[in-house]
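lol ok so funny story. i was supposed to be doing the assay writeup but got distracted and ended up predicting the structure for this chain instead. priorities right. anyway since i did it might as well share w the group, maybe its usefull for someone
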Amino acid sequence: MLRTRQSGILLHPTSLAGPEGLGTLGEEAYTFVDFLVAAGQSVWQVLPLGPTGYGDCPYSSFSAFAGNPDLISLTQLVAVGDLNKGDLPPPCTVASRINFQSCHDVRTPLLIKASRNFLEDKKDSVRHLNFVEFCQQQASWLNDYAFYRAMRQAQNHNAWQDWPVEVRDRKESALRQWGTKLKLEISQEKYLQFVFFEQWFALKEYANQQGIEIFGDLPIFVALDSADVWANRDLFQLDEQGQPQLVAGVPPDYFSTTGQLWGNPLYDWERLAQDGYSWWKARLQWNLAQCDLVRIDHFRGFEACWAVPATETTAINGFWQPGPGTVFFERMQQELGELSLIAEDLGIITPAVEQLRDHFQLPGMKILQFAFDSGPKNPYLPHQHLRNSVVYTGTHDNTTSLAWWQALDTDGKQKVRDYLDSTCREMPWPLIRCALASSARMSIIPMQDLLKLGGKARMNLPGTATGNWNWRMTSDQLDPEVAGRLKELCRRFDRIPYS
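and the output, tada:
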């Protein structure tokens, strides 16, 4: 439950401006923390941090536990001695779009070189001891993940369902044989996870010391082609070949007339309940260790999820399949204590979903871009906001607020002007002011809105598989004037808890 008025900025680390082809956990991340402080903010919201697969989507990861090696700072690897300064590529000119494939082509050989340098170095160094300790502490997911990534590469990046049957089905003799064959590659994958979390927790510690909380994001579902599903097939609704008969999605809604067909396998909640949801407990515990609070994407799936036959090409012909509901969260509270979770309660939300959210006092989300298309009872209008909620101008799934405003017809714009009592000539700043003035205790503004960027800066278009997630800031956009303006508004509306 949110107890103080706060404000923060939504910006995924890949969107930071820095010397590499995409933003990393290096100096640019620390500079952004300093900008947050100068702007009077106390929250940095990020997207999921896992290793991305097809489409570079943070919500489709090879692991629910691992970190994304794309975010590892090569410069910091030089600082700790895993690379030499001469190994680094020349600093790139920061463009407004990320070419992920080009980044992988440049970075992968260097990450492999860094791993070999580290693994061949003195085995009694402090970092080596830390590495061994990390591997031991995270063995429950790290061993399977490292094997999965090494094996997937050995199988020409094919999904685990297409691997040799003995490995697909995790026969012990086959796992031993391939584990020996891929020993070096498995160790390299473990090194990458060690380095990612070494850099991540150092950044988080710095942010916390400056009064900045990290607001993470946890997708409810996991990717079919992931270490989690391969290693825990019994926890999902799969056939004998590891293929789903039903997949996750959402019915037609604001974003799509045919719904969204995500393709994730559905959980076998009865099987998960048999051991007290231990896999989910471990997942929540690890995510809450990485972040100070965590948004559960598609929270409504815990009450019921939209199940679509795997043969369908759209999400229209699905049905609601019950989730675990209250029993799940009661067990998680017993095991983990108070849950610092935010419920992403957008889309088709029923009274049962609201009751589940409110029973555990989980904050929900309010999106101002959804607020002005109906009358005064619209729940997204600020005068309807609950205190225990998070208000956004828009999210990563919306276009930028400037583009939203520009796309409104004359009547729509007049409704916004009337409510805000503003000419809206400086849009999106009137909408930002509205969010900060809301009674919702937390306000989150996407960085694109603070920079008054148009639709080309949109992060994601739901229902499309490619061309997303690649927006990036330029180095001159952390403007002190923007920071000062935001801080003054936060001071005015009592959103600087440490002042």
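The chain has a mean pLDDT of 96. The longest helix spans residues 183-209.
back to the writeup now i swear
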